[in-house]
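Re: weekly structure request thread

Next one in the queue (458 aa):
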Amino acid sequence: MMSHGPCKRSDWKYSPLDARRLIKLNICMSYAFLCLLTVIFVLVSILYHSTDSFRKQCLRLNILCIQNGHNSIPARTFMWNDTRLDILNMEQFHFDTRFKNPCWFETLISPDPYQRNIYSSYSRAVKRMLEKMTLLWRERLSKNVSSSYRLRCLPYFYIIGQPKCGSTDLFWRISRHPDVVTPPIKELHWWSRGRQGRRVGYSDLIPLGDYIDIFDKVAFLMESHNSSRESRSRPFPLITGEASVSLFWDNPDWYNYPENQHFLEPKYTNPDYIHHLLPDVKLILIVRNPSDRLYSDYLYFHEANKSAEDFHNSVVQTTNLYSNCSRIRSVRECIYDEQLAITAKVRLRLGLYSVYLDDWLRVFERDQILILRLEDYALNPEHTMNNIFKFLKLRHLSSKEIKYVLEKPIENQRSASDRQVGNMLSETRQMLDQYFSPFNRHFAELVSDQRFLWKEHR
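Done, posted below.
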């Protein structure tokens, strides 16, 4: 007779008077439960390994992933024709010249203007800030039952790139200037990801108003301080900004916008949309040797099994991928191909600075973009910060104030575990330097600065 483990068919004849049969029944049930757990474990393992690659790609793209099989919710189901996405046809703001920062007054009617703000649903810092602002607006409306006004602002400056180039450290040092006030979130990624719903898994778009809400505390401070000033011969000097380092390169849904349809590569990218609403904005771009940037990016975003050898293999796969693509398509078409980016094992395209800069210089004047090297910033942070403050037209700081700016510890340094991985292999560096070389030359020509050839690293 075939065995059925500790349970046999006859064991199921239960008699409450037979203690031995009760024990056997318990053993049988335990055995069946263990079998069920084993099956569940196997199924979960299969599911994990089948979606692990997708999950890592989402991490590298810094998006909130909602899985549907092996794919995120299809972008085609999103409301791409929604007029709230049509920035190029939006009416432009008329900024109040009494403020240095781009700000304007608008009517305040609702005592709870943030009731549906999407940012508050996934950021505690934003939620707390908006709750405090709601109390202030209720108090203001209580003094004028019909309506009142509030100052609204957009950023005076953006740090637009690049990841793993010191942008976090740079932003927080800028924020230490007495005339700079910052929002509760350093990187909002609204222009590149939020407005089209990518940041919330395409479940909804994030309206422009929700983005502007994030700067309401900043605007309130500006309004309050300006009203108490004795002399108003000059614009109020406080400014704000943010550091969404995806702005320079990330246009993941360009092909879904009606204005970009039927093109093989985007006609309009982030700079076009930003320029429409903020034509005089100041932009800061900090970059580093693209070979070093890529290795730092790999160490930061890959969760496990990191090694110089694995990085080398990933570089081989990705350089071949983009080289093969550029043989039959334009380089620009290749780097804006999101499917290609997902297939790539490392974010090589982020180091093709010249291709992206071409897009920005097509829209903005050269003197609106301050371009820095991380290598120079690391060697002489005081000189770099003084250049930034001059570019932003901020007042010169005293020696005590600049000391306060510089004493802040460096942000986002490489972790101890990543340092144990060691340096990239020499053959990997040689391969990357060769690949990036023509793009570095073009970048150096665009900015008229030979330092961006990174010859000191060869």
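Residues 62-287+363-424 form a domain with the Rossmann fold fold (CATH 3.40.50). The CA atoms of residues 7 and 29 lie 9 Å apart.
Next request, please.
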